[in-house]
């Protein structure tokens, strides 16, 4: 039996492209169900999606992360395929994404946006920011992805139903990536053509504003997932500062027998106490994080994998 595939399309104000996107996915995957989750559009996006045969639902909380949380909660399927409604991703590779999930028993496959596309399709600022953030995530969590911000992805049921979905905006792709890395899930990548938006269609992504939000999300998730390393780094920085300030005081004391800068002594003592407090927090929170990770893993294992009944 072919897998039950649900195509999930979060969108807002995409009346120019949504009908074509829905039709193309229904052509590429004839047995799939296409869900369009509208995020408070002010144009005719909803009407165009319905005319194309999509199942249309609405999420009132603004932000892509809120829409993805609602989609993952509402929809049941064997394989989930998520794409944007702006027509930038190629539906022709959708069958390949689904096959990778089922044939290779993967939990997430990312459609990597090809790097040789035109400047109009993939702006230089977005491309540079994507590479920087991808390398940063790889440095903190492991190098397994080459495009962490792609919105074109396929998921297994056990990935979707074990994903907490805490992000509210465009940082949702980062959270999806780190969830897979945290639980050491089997994942894959496939090249995906990334096309330019049609004339009259405008991107809702701000290079700097959303870039800083994604960077802050990475730091926050690193604290949540790797607290021992996060607070250990704070311990090391504070300890080095304290020792650096203490060294000349110790030298002066052995030369003269006096401690001439008492305020500095008090400050260095306080900094060292903060360093050890940070280290203790890291050890305690690492135990808590391990328990949370084990709980997520058990929920993940309680569901059948790709291709299983």
Describe this structure in words.
The mean pLDDT is 89. The chain is built from 10 helices and 7 strands. Strand 1, helix 1 and strand 2 (33-38) form a beta-alpha-beta unit. The protein folds into 2 domains: 5-223, Spore Coat Polysaccharide Biosynthesis Protein SpsA, Chain A; 227-300. The chain has a 7-stranded mixed β-sheet, sandwiched between helices. With 309 residues, the chain is of the alpha/beta class. The termini are close together. The longest helix has 40 residues, at 262-301. The protein has helices spanning 18-28, 45-51, 64-74, 94-103, 124-141, 157-161, 172-182, 207-225, 227-256, 262-301, and strands at residues 5-11, 33-38, 55-58, 79-82, 108-113, 153-156, 187-192.
Distance between the termini: 10 Å
- What order do the helices and strands follow? EHEHEHEHEHEHHEHHH
Side by side, the strands of the main sheet go: 3-2-1-4-6-5-7
- Please tell me how large the radius of gyration is: 24 Å
CATH C-level class of the largest domain is Alpha Beta
Class from secondary-structure proportions: alpha/beta
What's the CATH H-level superfamily name of the largest domain? Answer: Spore Coat Polysaccharide Biosynthesis Protein SpsA, Chain A
Kindly report the CATH topology of the largest domain: Spore Coat Polysaccharide Biosynthesis Protein SpsA, Chain A
Structural domains: how many: 2
SS strand fraction: 5-15%
Ranges with pLDDT <50 over ≥5 residues? none
Average pLDDT over all residues: 89
Global morphology: elongated
Share of residues in helices = 40-55%
Work out the number of β strands.
7
List the total number of helices.
10
The largest sheet, given as strand count, sense and whether it forms a barrel, is: 7 strands, mixed
CATH architectural group of the largest domain = Alpha-Beta Complex
